[in-house]
Fold this protein.
Amino acid sequence: MEEASGDTASQLFGKFVAFLRKCLFCILSVGPIPTHIAFIMDGNRRYAKKQHLDGGAGHKIGFLALMSMLKYCYELGVRYVTIYAFSIENFKRSPEEVQSLMDLMQEKIEGLIEKESIVNRYGVRVYFIGNLKLLTEPVRLAADRAMLATAKNSKAVLSICVAYTSTNEIVHGVQKACEEKYDEIRVLNASRTGYGLIELGGSEQDEREQLIKLTDIEKNMYMAFAPEPDIIIRTSGETRLSNFLLWQSAHCYLYSPSVLWPEFGFWHFLWAILTFQRNQFYMDKIKKQS
């Protein structure tokens, strides 16, 4: 009987907290709501050390913090969320730690496609971004299944950057743009329609200047489907981007709370949104000038 009463009280408290959160989000909605928030989830290992836990426990607790952040974002109306889950540089860690992270990643990815998962509750489409061939086969296959299973979700988007660095993304975009342009020239030359090249009166210098345009590269970036982030949040007080979304972050707001990622909670999130709203006019002015 006492246990049942405790469960009822817990449910009532949970409903009250959800109602309070909804009221606060309604107030926030008076101001501009970011379309895209990106997270650098820094501090999982330091949190585990601080709490005298084994290293893997820090990442597991960090995953719970991530689930809370996704819920807050989608309840507020943020359409795009991007997380920096695993850098290419992280493969330089010890083989035991890398394998442990791969195992944890596979477990959590498979959980995303469960019927009652957060992505299905909020209608979220999942993308895995990065050089995915570097992942272990079980993780890569799990990622493919998750992307396929959520392909019809259309209310929001979750981008998970794994085996990712921004420099790798930029190189990939340039390579793909060059390959496309080469194929286009080859087809035109084969059909003898030309390419507006020297024979049509242009100079060789004009050709080089116009061959690859900015839009050619941008459409071939891993993150081409998403707008530029409005906010990048990096926990643990670090102000480095660590090779994350360098191409896309020229005009976004950076927020670097001192708490470690597993400690990042609702009030930190609320403050990030309020600070973004306070600076939005200035950020829009900078974008227009550029």
